[in-house]
Amino acid sequence: QVQLMESGGGLVQPGGSLRLSCAASGSISSINAMGWYRQAPGKQRELVAQLTSGGSTTYADSVKGRFTISSDGAKRTVYLQMNSLKPEDTAIYYCNGYIKPSGGYVHYYWGQGTQVTVSS
Question: In sequence order, what DSSP letters do the residues of 92-116 get, joined into one string?
Answer without folding.
Answer: EEEEEEEEEETTS--EEEE---EEE
